[in-house]
Amino acid sequence: MPQINTSKVSRRDRHGREHVVRVERTGVQRTIRCDTCGWRQGAQFLPWLKAAEHLAEAHQATVDPTDSPPSR
Length: 72
Description:
Helices cover about 20% and strands about 40% of the residues. The chain is of the alpha+beta class.
């Protein structure tokens, strides 16, 4: 039985709402799933880049919540 590994890409839109796309890996196959709209796609190469592109295009979510603001 193949092991399933999951990671996520999250971004915030201009209203502060967080949108998440999960990247699931089963063996060599990767599937991208959006928690917000249910969109899903298979991705063999660069799944995290495709996830970030979906968030920017479909949800206008471009702010990475893990980026810390510059110190003053």
